[in-house]
Write a structure and sequence with these properties.
The protein has 201 residues and is an all-alpha fold. Helices cover 67% and strands 0% of the residues. Helix 2 runs antiparallel to helix 3, helix 3 crosses helix 5 and helix 5 packs parallel to helix 6.
Length: 201
């Protein structure tokens, strides 16, 4: 992470307000009635704070930008298939990162911190940049804790072997500390069994 000087708390507070205002425009709602991307931002930031208790304000703000305005670029706007999916995902990384930097600068956060956030949100330096890895860890943990059951239901046609392959690839993305956190999750029995099979494979 950069050794850039920290912005005044007020700038970080303004940035948080701008980020959450953008999330609040998400038309999809979570089960509690809040905009889905606002709920997601809370979950990612919570995991970052749990994994890195002394996480700097910029990293916590970056956590809130993991899916910043993702709803504006639906998956259906890209071709079907793996290549289309990967192209869509790469485009999101860039859009989310650039938008995050824009909002932080508008809030008065120093350019060096805003640049760090853009780096982390764009997934640049995964496995080598601690900030980028922290966001990836948190995103995977949110997926495992809150989304994997829905994903499995949505892809009920997948053979068991494909789910295990997905879980193995997902596991490899995690840092050792995040892997330990994942092992402590209270997963539905069927999902927990898949995870056990993936890790023993």
């Amino acid at each position: 992470m950069s050794a850039s000087a920290s912005a005044p708390d007020s700038a970080h507070d303004r940035a948080r307000q701008l980020i959450d205002s953008a999330h609040s425009a998400d038309p999809a709602l979570a089960s509690d009635g809040r905009p889905a991307e606002l709920v997601y931002a809370d979950r990612v930031e919570t995991w970052v704070a749990q994994l890195i208790p002394d996480a700097p304000p910029a990293l916590r703000l970056a956590a809130r930008c993991q899916h910043l305005e993702r709803w504006l670029t639906p998956r259906a706007t890209f071709p079907e298939g793996k290549v289309g999916y990967l192209t869509w995902r790469r485009s999101l990384y860039v859009k989310q990162a650039d938008r995050a930097r824009e909002l932080l600068l508008a809030a008065g956060v120093p350019a060096a911190e805003a640049d760090d956030v853009r780096t982390w949100v764009s997934k640049t330096g995964l496995k080598t940049n601690p900030g980028t890895q922290a966001l990836e860890d948190a995103a995977v943990l949110v997926f495992l804790e809150n989304e994997i059951a829905g994903f499995a239901a949505q892809h009920a046609d997948y053979p068991r072997e494909k789910f295990i392959d997905i879980l193995q690839k997902t596991w490899r993305k995690l840092s050792p500390s995040a892997q330990q956190a994942a092992l402590g999750l209270d997963l539905p029995p069927a999902i927990a069994a898949l995870v056990r099979d993936a890790l023993s494979g």
